[in-house]
Amino acid sequence: MLRHKQRIGMGLILVLILGLGLTGLADKPYEGQVLHLASMADQFTDHLVVLGRQFEEVTGARVEVDVLGYVELREKVVLDYTTDTKQYDLATVDIVWTGEFAEKGWTVDLKPWINRDYIELNVPDILPVTWAQGEWAGKQVAFPMAGYVNSLIYRTDLFADADEQAAFKAEYGYDLNVPRTLDELVDVATFFTRPDEGQYGLVANGARGPAVAQDWMEYMRGFGGRIVDREGNVYVDSPKAVAALELFVQIFDEWAPPGAPNYWWDDRETSYRTGMSVMQSSWSIARAGYENPDISLVVGKTGMAITPTAAGDTPAFGFGGWGIGINADIDPEKQEIAWEFIKWIASEEIQKDWMLNDGAPIRLSTLLDPELNEAMPWLPTMLTMFMHGDGDYRPRVPEYNQIQDILGLRVNQAITHELTAEEALTLAAQEIRALYSD
Amino acid sequence: MLSRKGIFSSKYSLYWLMAPLFIYLAVFYLYPLIYSVYMGFFEWNMGDPTMTFVGLSNYVAAFRDSQFTGSFINTATFVVAAVGIELTLGLALALLLNRETWPMRLLRTVVLLPTLLTPLVVALTWKALLNPDFGALTYYIRAVGLDIGRGVFVERSLAMAGIVLIDVWQWTSLITIILLAGLKGMPIEPYEAAYVDGASRWQAFRFITIPLLRPTILIALVVRSLDALKIFDSVFAITGGGPGTATTTTNFHIFKVGIQHLRVGYASALSNIFLAVSVGIGLLIIRNVFLSSRRKGGAV
Question: Looking at CA atoms only, how far is residue A428 from chain B in angstroms?
Fold first, then answer.
């Protein structure tokens, strides 16, 4: 039996322990909580996993990141949302999925929270074009996370080579420069295609599915073509779109490596990074990787330019990338924690750190940062593209997934000569119109 | 001793013992099958909770779906080619491994290894090896002067052959093991009598081995055929059904409709048609081999 003084002493010790515990809890308000995040397997993902661990150190909430391929990511999160299984609290949302996610109510409308935390987020610093990663019909169903701009990637050393310049001038009658028009692109791609030397002038994705569909859309944009508008008017069989597909077929027939008709994004990037291909239309997320000697044989030899357009057309800048959305089925308390994570990774400090680790920007301050500009001299070009970016050249409509699947088949059939370009887009247009008439 | 009456008597003990199996079959096979048939009569997109009764419209649409009807041809081509090659190679391997020497015993283990691998991993590995621009195998194929055009999985004429090749590599050993088990169970007396009568090895193989092995060949054929009908991993991982529709198999098309497009009502109708065709093919194989065996007076 404890004496009176011993009892008081033990009580004080208990109070002390409890007080220390509560203090710890106050420092880490989400201790014991777990956030499950489904993320696209892209260049930004490795550091997203690191950021998850840092968030746990700061807040106590553990972030488990499931890294998935493009097709698998969409399948898993959509099945999660439609079956209410609440496997994922957060998911990276492709810009083109915005309309579907908004219409189906799969992810939370973040607008009220964005307005509530406007100052904390420093919203004016977020580049206007990036809101397309989640904006639809007045809702914001994903927060900007990784902004991509599309550009022409090319080998600066080959363009600067005096012998190459002389040979090009002799053959084509004008100076060798980074192509600005599609006609110049054809000449330059032809000039640099030398299969006997294992060198190919221009590479693109050809694999049936999202890979070929999305790559074709880059060239369609250059021709000023469109697919469909928000009212369901279909333009994919227009003369401009057909011309874009004819050029796209020519890429695989004349300038791309033999295996390109089965290329996904990683194959196309490998083709460029190994020095096999001289040019490609690519997203800015891959830019830093060309300077990484662990994965690139073309370190210090890459330039970034506006994608060529038809002669006389205004240059168009394609914008894409990934937002991050909160599962609408999870508990409100969990949604708040997920929102805290989004605010944290969107903060200026974390965005800068992320850029130094293969991230993609969403803030003006990130693109203007002197330290980042010294490390990445291509940022000013990217800033220009962000300021003029078009996030709607790929229709972010609710039917996008099926439209992409239709184009993924028909464009692949065109490049493998199962159909002509006109036949392919005529069929595609019929099938897309049927989606809107159902 | 306690007396048991009615359904608890020993007369019904067999059914009680089999009850767990019946429950398992009912829950995991019968119920999903019935629900799938039911869903086939509805237009249902999982993104929208509304189910609309459409009667036989999904089934009618299936026969107008050129990708679905075309996928049957692709699937049939794959099954005939893959299973035919696997049976031939499997029988040859089984005859070779039937000898009880230590090299053959060791080889039996090695031969089994491909079947232990995950099909998706096998597909991705072969995709890398046969990549026309970066693949090691492609490099050596071209080095010896063989022309494979733009690559196995790029050429429409070669893509399905590539899928068949991967399947043969992985599953021939399964056929081998099944046939080897059959060979091990065969009596030696017919062979002894045949050799005494002056039969050659080829005659012994043709008139003794094959007839006696027929039931085992049937098992291997049915098991492998029904499995091959479901081909999915290689198509998903390597070609995505392409180039064009060259490797779009029925299972893959149903997956796209149901999982990627969320049209579970239509996908259910497609699945039910595919199931009916698969069961029909299985019964045809069994019936033809059974009848053929009966006509020849052999055991089945």
Answer: 13
Q: Are A174 and A128 part of one and the same domain?
A: no
Same domain membership, residue A192 and residue A108: no
In a domain, A154, yes or no: yes
Q: Which of A390, A413, A429 is the last residue of a domain?
A: A390
- CATH number, residue A356: 3.40.190.10
3 state DSSP class of B151:
coil
Per-residue pLDDT of A112-161, as tens digits, reads 999 999 999 999 999 999 999 999 999 999 999 999 999 999 999 999 99
A75 and A154 assigned to the same domain: no
Show residues of chain B in contact with A266, CB under 8 Å: none
The residue in chain B having the minimum alpha-carbon distance to the alpha carbon of residue A253 is B150
The answer to whether the predicted template modeling score (pTM) of the entire model surpasses 0.90 is: no
Do A107 and A63 share a structural domain?
yes
Q: How far off is chain B from A153, nearest CA to CA, in Å?
A: 20
Structural domain contains residue A71: yes
User: Is the minimum CB–CB distance between B150 and chain A shorter than 8 Å?
Assistant: yes
Average pLDDT of adjacent 10-residue blocks, chain B of 300 residues: 61 86 94 94 88 94 93 95 96 91 87 92 94 89 82 91 96 94 90 90 90 90 92 94 94 94 94 93 78 55
Q: Please return the burial class of B15, using the count of CB atoms within 10 Å of its CB with bins 0-12, 13-18 and 19+.
A: exposed
Looking at the structure, do residues A208 and A88 belong to the same domain, yes or no?
Answer: no
Q: Give domain limits for chain B.
A: 47-295
Architecture per CATH, domain B47-295, reads as Orthogonal Bundle (1.10)
Which residues of chain B neighbour A413 with C-beta distances below 8 Å?
243-245
Q: CB A104 to CB B48 under 8 A?
A: yes
Question: ipTM value of the model?
Answer: 0.84
Question: Under an 8 A CB cutoff, do A258 and B132 touch?
Answer: yes
Structure tokens that stand for A130 in this block: 């990036």
Tell me the β-bridge partners of A62: A34
Query: What residues of A are in contact with residue B46 (Cβ under 8 Å)?
Result: 78-79, 82-83
- Beta carbons of A208 and B243 less than 8 Å apart: yes
Looking at the structure of chain A, the number of domains it has is 2
**One domain for residues A114 and A137:** yes
Pair A344, A356 in one domain: yes
Mutant choice from A200, A205, A262 vs B, greatest count of B C-beta within 10 A: A262
Domain that holds residue A70: 29-148+320-390
Q: Do the chains contact at B47 and A82, CB–CB below 8 Å? A: yes
Looking at the structure, tell me whether residues A273 and A399 fall in a common domain. yes
